[in-house]
């Protein structure tokens, strides 16, 4: 029999043992909780870690934001011969009107609103005309000074990454590059010229550099070869870029060159330039040769002049089969067909192959649609059409070709 004292001791022991077990359970639960929280933090950190490319884009955007916060610059876009506000995309033809608008619009927007307009990471065009520091009022002096002045004022800027901006001096009287001071006829030519100074994307095939990924992709089409027929006139091209150029010029729905001032369109580049000079009094820029006194209307004509007159190409490409010499590897490649007999130009209709693209284009003319006017049957060649007339429509055939109907 248990005495009252004995029962009291047993209950006390069991109670103490229960407290100990509860404490151990609480410790175990707490330690498991800490372990699970630490593992969650590690998982969370891995989940939100940026890739190298994403990190580069993030830093570039940060650089651009710091520059726009430090300097009174005018961010803009260029589309269809119009200047557009980078924040709201209102368009302008006059540079002064653009600057006045952006000055007010920037107070209601942020840099995020600019990047929201881009489908992918791109540089922000900035007009540096009359720009100054927002903090110390120092006037803009150059691109390098712009970067280091941002750092001097304590803004977050990483010099190992691109600035994220593309500087221009918008002045219709003289479209000049802010880096090398070269002059151009219009803003489009100046914009294309900036690929020389900002080569962030390099073509793996030829090594040319471009400032944005879309421009590199457009250039890469030049290196795509094959058989590319035009769906309008059935001409066949060996390069897709050549086919697209042909379609934009030969089958354009309207004249290609549009006046940025009055929306009139012109068939030729020089027609538009003459219109701008006469109707809108825009100053025409001439491109002077650095080696002689001649000047040219376009930089392309000046480049041709320099290459042909001052630095003519040497015939360094020799044919291994004969004594012919050529200026370029492309000319040598075209010549080699005579020796190798390669037929790389194939007719997509009948499968016949040719050595030259010109021969293929001539051949394609025989595949023009030859249809029978009386029964509607289509033929790929005129000879098949005539054979069909003789066998199925002999009376009509005799009327059309009486000489063939006589025996």
TrEMBL record:
Annotated compartments: Nucleus
GO cellular component terms given for this protein: nucleus
Gene3D superfamilies: Classic Zinc Finger
GO molecular function, one term: zinc ion binding
C2H2-type domain residues: 83-114, 175-197, 201-223, 228-256, 287-315, 317-344, 345-367, 370-393
The name this protein goes by in its record: C2H2-type domain-containing protein
Record lineage: Eukaryota, Metazoa, Ecdysozoa, Arthropoda, Hexapoda
Listed PROSITE patterns: ZINC_FINGER_C2H2_1 (PS00028), ZINC_FINGER_C2H2_2 (PS50157)
Pfam family, one: zf-C2H2
Domain of life (superkingdom): Eukaryota
UniProt key word Zinc: yes
Keyword Aminoacyl-tRNA synthetase: no
Chief localisation class: nucleus
Keyword vocabulary terms for this entry: Metal-binding, Nucleus, Repeat, Zinc, Zinc-finger
């Amino acid at each position: 029999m248990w005495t009252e004292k004995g029962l009291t001791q047993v209950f006390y022991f069991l109670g103490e043992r229960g407290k100990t077990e509860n404490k151990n359970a609480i410790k175990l639960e707490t330690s498991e909780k800490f372990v699970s929280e630490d593992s969650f933090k590690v998982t969370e950190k891995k989940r939100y870690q940026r890739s190298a490319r994403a990190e580069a884009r993030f830093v570039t955007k940060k650089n651009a934001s710091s520059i726009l916060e430090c300097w009174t610059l005018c961010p803009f876009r260029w589309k269809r011969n119009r200047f557009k506000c980078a924040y709201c995309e209102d368009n302008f033809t006059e540079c002064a009107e653009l600057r006045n608008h952006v000055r007010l619009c920037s107070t209601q927007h942020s840099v995020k609103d600019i990047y929201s307009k881009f489908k992918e990471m791109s540089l922000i065009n900035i007009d540096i005309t009359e720009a100054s520091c927002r903090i110390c009022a120092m006037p803009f002096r150059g691109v390098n000074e712009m970067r280091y002045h941002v750092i001097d004022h304590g803004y977050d800027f990483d010099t190992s990454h691109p600035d994220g901006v593309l500087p221009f001096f918008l002045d219709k009287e003289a479209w000049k590059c802010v880096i090398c001071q070269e002059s151009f006829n219009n803003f489009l030519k100046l914009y294309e010229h900036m690929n020389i100074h900002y080569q962030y994307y390099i073509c793996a095939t030829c090594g040319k550099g471009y400032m944005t990924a879309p421009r590199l992709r457009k250039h890469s089409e030049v290196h795509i070869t094959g058989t590319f027929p035009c769906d309008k006139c059935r001409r066949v091209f060996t390069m897709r870029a050549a086919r697209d150029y042909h379609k934009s010029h030969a089958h354009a729905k309207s004249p290609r060159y549009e006046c940025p001032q009055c929306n009139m369109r012109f068939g030729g580049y020089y027609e538009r330039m003459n219109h701008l000079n006469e109707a809108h009094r825009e100053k025409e820029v001439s491109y002077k040769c650095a080696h002689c006194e001649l000047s040219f209307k376009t930089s392309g004509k000046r480049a041709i002049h320099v290459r042909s007159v001052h630095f003519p190409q040497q015939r360094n490409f020799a044919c291994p089969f004969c004594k012919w010499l050529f200026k370029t590897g492309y000319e040598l490649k075209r010549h080699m067909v005579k020796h190798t007999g390669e037929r790389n130009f194939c007719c997509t209709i009948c499968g016949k192959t040719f050595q030259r693209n010109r021969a293929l284009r001539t051949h394609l003319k025989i595949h023009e649609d030859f249809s029978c006017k009386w029964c509607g049957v289509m033929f790929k060649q005129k000879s098949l059409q005539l054979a069909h007339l003789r066998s199925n429509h002999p009376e009509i055939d005799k009327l059309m070709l009486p000489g063939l109907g006589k025996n």
